[in-house]
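Notes on consecutive records. When two proteins share a document, each keeps its own sequence and its own token line. Never mix them. Below: protein one.
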Amino acid sequence: MLDLDKKVFGNITTKEIIGADPPALPNTKENLEKELVTLLAELESTPKPNLEKLLEEQKNSENHINSRPGAMALAQNKIQLFNEYSEKYVQSITKKLQS
């Protein structure tokens, strides 16, 4: 069973990404942008051992959003936005791990 209240990107839940509300533009995009800024700021003070856990959690969130039955019938534009912002976050975590 899909957990609609699972946080998949900061405080953004599955329901917000795959549901009809909020609309993709401008709401979901603005929400993702704000969460990305917050998450990147938090990365600055995150110790390296915790970064690997964050990376794994975010990749699990991507899988959670992208690999569920009936995905084609859901809000593809919002899922695409989620994937774009999630990838930016994953890249930032990876870059910090390599530094």
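Protein two starts on the next line and is unrelated to protein one.
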Amino acid sequence: MENKSNKVLVEMESGDSFVIELYPEFAPKTVENFKTLVSKKFYNGLTFHRVIDGFMAQGGCPIGNGTGGSDENIVGEFKQNGFVDNTLSHTRGVVSMARSMSPNSASSQFFICYDDASFLDGQYAAFGKVVEGMETVDKFLETERVGAEGGTPVTPIVIKSMSFAE
């Protein structure tokens, strides 16, 4: 049964939560893929494994280090890949698909922009926006981080569950 809701409630292990509104008019296949993964409870128990001040928080990797994905890659719905209808700009709160160098390598990993990242426009498939609880995503920045970019949380930032909201 297809879920008609385009809002996803993200509940964190911390007890905090936020809501992502999905925009199929910009990236229909991306939204369909994300909704399928939410329906399958794919994201439950996964982490935000990369958090970078002034840029973004990235999650959705089943391995937890940015190298994994679901079983399926999707077509990159962004201008450089021939999708001119995706004009959603990477501004604060916008949710977009992470990918490797290949334009059609997005799978399950996504990121949420902290600030304007319009330099990503046309290169990544933006497909939603945090419409409630952005302060929860901001709290990820308070976690101690290590690594080359200083973006790997020392204490895991765990997604308890994702479900469809009204």
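For the record: The domain at 7-165 is CATH 2.40.100.10 (Cyclophilin).
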